[in-house]
Please model this.
Amino acid sequence: MTTEPRKPPPQFIFRLKRALGGKSGWTGLAVQIVFAAVLAWVAYEIVANARANLETQRIASGFGFLKNTAGFDVSLNLVPYSGSDTYTRVFLVGLLNTLLVAVIGIIFATIIGFIIALCRLSPNWLLARIGEIYVELVRNLPLLFQLLFWYLAVLAALPGPRQSISLFNTAFLSNRGLVIPRPIGEAGLDPFLIAIAIGIVGALALRSYARRALFQRGQAIRIWPTVLGLLFGLPLATMLIFGLPLTFEMPQLKGFNFAGGARVIPELVALLVALSTYTAAFIAEIVRAGILSVHKGQMEAGSSLGLSRGATLRLIVVPQAMRVIVPPLTNQYLNLTKNSSLAVAIGYPDLVSVFAGTTLSQTGQAIEIIAITMGVYLLISLVTSAVMSVYGWRINRSLGAGA
Amino acid sequence: MTDVTASSFVRQDLVPERPAPVKTTGFIGFVRTRLLNSPTNILLTIVALLLLWYTIIPALKFLLVDAVWSGKDRNACLAENTGHQVGACWPYIQAKLTQLIYGFYPEAERWRVNLTFILAVVLLAPLLIPRLPAKGLNASLFFFAFPVVAFFLLRGGGLTGFGVSWVASLSQLFGDSIVNAGQVLVNLSQNSAIGPVLWGIGKLIVLIGSAVGWLIFPLTWLRDQLQMSGQPLWYDFLLTAVIVSLILFFLGGGMRTGQRALLASLVTFAGIAVVIKLMGLDRGGLAVVDTRLWGGLLVTLVVSVTGIVTSMPIGIALALGRRSTIPLIRVFSIAFIEFWRGVPLITVLFFATYMLPLFLPGNFNVDGLVRALIGIALFAGAYQAEVVRGGLAAIPRGQGEAASALGLSWWKTTSLIVMPQALRHVIPGLVNSFIALFKDTSLVSIVALFDLLGSLHATFSDPTWSTPTTAFTGFAFAGMIYFVFCFGMSRYSLFVENRLNAHRRN
Model:
């Protein structure tokens, strides 16, 4: 005879308690009610005061101002913009300028950061000390200080366009900014781009096929000649058939300034230099810590398995270092993006400068404009941290599966 | 037994001396092993030397060799007057030194700033040396007493009331605000679908607000009586001292164990009385210096010290809130922390400067410096919270469980067992965020406050000293100040870290 297990008691009260007050029970519920009341009171005060203050200052609240004409010019716009466009357009221009600085800055900061990290890890004593001095010097000075230093001291001390510093007669650096050759698309551009896209997709597909062959059948396929052919040969071939994809318009000194070429405004140059050198110091420390975090035994175990030094680095050391490096590295990328808002100090037209600066002072819509600006940055960082937590979850899963 | 030396397998002649091994110690050995041990390394060493040659030498030349050390105006620092290439223009720093340190703080009152600096050093130095005793007293003096004293020293002004008056005024404001909120709801109920419900809630809220008003009636009456007397501050002070001491005495355990609390409270109030008397706060205090006149290093230090002092409690509260078991508090803490950490400090300062005044009652005129301080405190508090949370997570569960097993309440467990250990764990992290905060204070110059960097920027526009090297000189000087502070803090954090990890050292 089998006895049915007794059903657990329903414990309605307990469940109710848990649902309303969490683990703390009735006390938790009471605290929550008081807290909610306080929050409601604060919210009421804020709304009531804001309404009264706006009324006395005769400011109409709402987002209607976004459709008004801006009436001011922006010194750098990636999308067509003129003074007769609306504030919405201003917002877009500012956002794109912020993203432009962030993307270029991230690329430069990563390159410089890795170089400095390699210097610091170098067996050469002198080079390691130079890397250390760089990191200590840059990390212990405020970013705004460095930004103003580059903008007010270094770039302002550069000679005028006529005596500008020339780099191989193609790029010219002067106190009006950096003038570089402007690329102009030709007839061959479209096929060239398509060929590059095909090359990249093909190389990726080939790589995944080779990995599958290695893991499932133990068959090692040599793919690099084909990949090289896809990535370089194909675009070269299209270039031969369809002609050059790009020609460059060279800057020429005419009178007191340059004609032709593309001009990078000095604000952008200063901002990029300051942001990338500053963030590079932090990235260097992260990379160094990541590489040092891989135990020496891993390298030795790799070579005892008969792997070459390069293969050990590529297959064993770097993946483990990346696990430590990537999360704080993304954090630094995020910091760089947020720090790009310092542009307002030197007048580079980024989001904060043109939207929370000029637009705010023209319209006086402080609440709406600052809320939008904060919202944009918040969105960027929340999306990044969501992506990062997915990454962390995948890394943990793959490591857990291996163990 | 045969003669050993005669055996054929014994060598008769001396082995020739082998050459000495390559020296790997001393300077020569060091150069050989660390700089010139392979062709690549030789190349790298040459590159590094070239790099140093082109950076260190010009920098030294600029700062020392070519520098101009004395002069009255820009003419002293022009190449055509000196006859050689001009480096740093130090007389410019001499002329602007007071502006870079005090801003436009009136010259006659600068002793107050100096006194504040000295007080800060006297209180901070023993706090930083681990061997010295009385850390608790020292910390409470630095974190509670010093900010108040510094406020009255730097800004000036006096007091007209004390605890009783403040509590009475605050609760009156609070009660009025609640009554107003209730009235709004009652008015809303007239044209709303859920009118009766709103009306009921509104009336209830009005009732609560009025109840607050009645409850504090004795307090407000007392305040009015005090204000009418000849010495409002002193009577108020005495009354507050008696009330607070009695409350502490009874909370501390009455006649049984309350004497300690009573004594501590009385000593504290005696200290406060001495400060009030010394600074003459009852007679209007020192002359008021408007914060718009503050500037330079003074503002940088005021902003960073206030940020550090205020962000700590905010950070601890948020960290505890984030680990709380009560859902609403946890969600609120997470949202609060993530919000402030997700936005740049500039937007926070813009928020504090342009948006905050709109959120406060119209008759509340908040000083520009205070606004920036509020923004920085919230921003730094969110970062501090994550550092403190790391420390809390590092404390094993057993600590809290053991405290519960001993019968300690949540508050006692947290304040006596968990938090001290957690904070000790994260001192390096806290110092690192202090460094970040110190560097970030330079951003207040964007919202029209003249901190060290802002003052420096302002001096560049002075035509008396405009020379080609003025900007470089100014940046060199300010950079040295920033570097000394930040580098000092980071070395201190390393020192503490080593001390904390002393048991792990081998």
Observations:
- The mean pLDDT of chain B is 84.
- Residues 93-106+293-504 of chain B form a domain with the MetI-like fold fold (CATH 1.10.3720.10).
- Chain B touches chain A through 65 residues (CB under 8 Å).
